Amino acid sequence: MPLFRQLWLAIILITLVSFVGSFAVSILSTRSHLEQRLQRKNADTANVLARSISQLSKDPVTIGAQIGAFFESGQFEGITITAPDGKLIAERTSEQAKTTVPKWFVDFFPIKVEAGQAQISDNRMHFGVIKIVSRDRLAEQALWDEAEALIIWYLIAGMISGLIGMLIMNRVRQPLATMKDQAEAIIERHFLTITEPRIPELRSIARATNDMVRRLHNRAIEETLHLEVLDKRMNYDPLTALPNRGHFMDRLRTALDGDEHLDGPEPAGGKLAKTGLLLLLRVENLEEINRKLGRRATNAMLHEIAAITEAVCINNPERVIGRLGGADFALVLPDVTDASDLLNGLSTQLTALLCQTNGETGGSWHIGAVQYKRGDKPGDVLTGADTALASAQGKGINTWHIAEMRPASTPVPTSGISDWRQIFISAITENRFKLTFFPVVDAAGAQLHEEGVANMQALQNGGWLDAADFLPVAARLGLTGYLDIAAVRYALEYLRSSSGELAINLAGETISDWDFRNQIVELLRQQPEPYRCRLWVEVPEYGAFRKLDAFRDFCKMLREIGCRVGLEDFGRHAAELQKLADLGVDYVKIDPSFVHGINHNKENQKLLKTLRSLARTLGILVIALGVETEAERKTLLKLGVDGMTESYTR
After folding, report:
1. For 376-387, what is each residue's pLDDT tens digit?
2. What is the pTM of this model?
3. CB 172 within 8 Å of CB 199
4. Tens digits of per-residue pLDDT, 548-590?
5. How many Cα atoms sit within 13 Å of 128 on the Cβ side?
6. Residue whose C-alpha is closest to residue 66's, from 50, 43, 77
7. Which option is the CATH number for 240-403: 3.50.50.60, 3.30.70.270, 3.90.480.10, 3.10.450.50?
8. CA 20 to 30 Å from 109, out of 118, 144, 181, 417?
9. What is the CB neighbour count within 10 angstroms for residue 271?
């Protein structure tokens, strides 16, 4: 029984017991008082009347006149005088008075009064006995009036007590409701503090809970700051603060995929550039410069080169800058087609800097540039830029060259395929898809769930293509939604025939498309709860962060219907794990690039250890992908990961 219902029941019982007890005591006391008064009245009246008659003549007329004088007052029910031999001398009686007293009340509280008696003498001789009975109905009426007054008073007191109890309950209920909201917020990983209530007992509980929330929040902040430091160490060059090679390649792929950047402001107008320019800048003879100028002067020179590179097209919010290596810098400039003036200005600044710092050290630079269009492969674009850089080096020192980007041929995984769109339409129509399952195990080696990876049969009776062979093309053609819906259907069929749990991957393009997203959610809602609650749905990290608002809505929808939501290939945005916790993410799968060689890589070990500590605080599972060796597995277990996928045989 709820606490407040118990308190109300206690108040009602206490009020009833108090009322019944007080009512009974009051009525019984009043009845006793009335009986005593009537008893004394009967006795006193009998004595007075007996003395009066004793002094008068004893003829019937005189006796009758004396009795009538008392009887006419209306207070007596009967007066009788009997002789010593029992003979009735005189008698006066009256009918019972009418009252409003209920019969049940008279039965519960009867008034019993003995008649008053006195002896009448005649010249010192015993004449007779007079007996007087008062009207008890009048006493019953007085007792009933007293009972009515008590009932009315107790009803008023009960209502006042109920009102006071309600006020007290509300005073207690409000802080309890606030504390309940705080507990639910903690479950949802929101750090909410509340105002301490005035009630001492609740104040101590609220104070302890607030202290716990502050500690959790401070710990989350500390872990987040630590992750930010590790993120900068992993993704940015410590000398120039520019993105390192890995992070630059991620952002280059994002620019070429035709979606917004993983970080940075959204471009004006909401549309990304369809074409652009990739520059590769190389400082020649860096080792000789370092030997002649020293480390400090060389680092200062590289820092200046980074500042000059960042100043190029500073008004272009979509530009991407990075340091690929010791002497190599890269710059992506969307919406730039004619770069002659830009390169001439950049050349002037670089030449002036190298001449000022190097003197006779022989320092020089070369720039290779290539035009790209949205949808080109990063490898092809980099190859074109390398070719342009080689051409610039062939021209002499301090030169640049712009090369034309040769159109890349469409990848053809199987012979005889030339129209990818028709291939996808045909495969979708004929349901030429299947899921290949890979186990994901927990720290003890027990299966956590299976991961379903899509395969497609491009041609009837042909071979099966891996997801990596066709998903990039499907994304370019805008067909990932159809493939993901097919994957969800196959996953549900698998769950109906098995008792385990299954994880599937959805593309970032799908969750940002309202039509496909709603179709998937509606398809899941139609399934019985035991099936959809065993489904784990994950989205690649780059897709989730590029479409963060859409991913937030998608997480909310899936959590409402019981599915688990996670991120795949996680690691580049480890510092933003707190943001993901607010979205309701249940788990993250670490990108294999952070897992490979983890037993030798101290930086990745620090990253995963910090990530696991923060994830444990936020209630997020951490799963490592692509474990290749026993040494990697043991290291990951020491770091405290919750699960892993193994690509080797133990």
Report:
1. 888 778 877 887
2. 0.56
3. yes
4. 888 989 998 998 899 999 999 888 777 777 777 778 889 999 9
5. 19
6. 50
7. 3.30.70.270
8. 118
9. 10
